[in-house]
Design a protein that fits this description.
The complex is a heterodimer. By secondary structure, chain A is mainly β. Chain A contains no helices and twelve strands. Chain A has strands spanning about 5, 10-15, 20, 25, 30-40, 45-50, 60, 65-70, 75-80, 90-95, 105, 110-115. In chain A, the strands form three sheets. In chain A, strands 2, 5, 6, 10, 11 and 12 form a six-stranded mixed β-sheet that branches. A four-stranded antiparallel β-sheet of chain A has the order 3-9-8-7, with no helix packed on it. Chain A is globular. Chain B is mainly beta. Chain B is globular. Classes of the chains: A mainly beta, B mainly beta. The interface of A and B includes residues 42, 99, 104 and 108 of A.
Amino acid sequence: AQTVTQSQPEMSVQEAETVTLSCTYDTSESDYYLFWYKQPPSRQMILVIRQEAYKQQNATENRFSVNFQKAAKSFSLKISDSQLGDAAMYFCAYRSATGTASKLTFGTGTRLQVTL
Amino acid sequence: EAGVAQSPRYKIIEKRQSVAFWCNPISGHATLYWYQQILGQGPKLLIQFQNNGVVDDSQLPKDRFSAERLKGVDSTLKIQPAKLEDSAVYLCASSSFRGATNEKLFFGSGTQLSVL
């Protein structure tokens, strides 16, 4: 079974600064997808960024980018130019690329605080 | 485009009572998921429907939890009888699932259940 580990329960960053959230995972599969989701107080999970394991190039979405290290099974999220609206829980998630059951396996989350 | 609708937003019950949650996915989405998110943890899949058939219910406590998706659209999740450890946020998600495992999931805002 796949597992996802987020070792930072809380992180804090000043507005306009850069922060990196860590995520490691364990799998025996070679083909899979990795995600970062944001969960604000409204509780709705919002997709931030997605990475296909077969792609060597790191995904980027505006101020959000990832550092995907497949051999090390590491998938960190970098938020540049942090904004107050970035404050939320961030979850790393894994999904197999095989089979029809496309279950997401989530980590325990990192609470990000953004200060002035 | 309307998002995933869930109700109620909050529910407080006493242990051993019954409770039901409702989810209306995005129109045309064939796949529907119910996730349980206990405080301090990431969401955990309870059940996945493809149209009105069950794809994965391996983590659903079937002695007390039940779910249905009549006509492949709306879905209800029921707990009977509830236990203290069922206190959690119950998230519904949907996806179009055209056969690709990288399809995007859209989440609702969840139902927060408190069992006293």
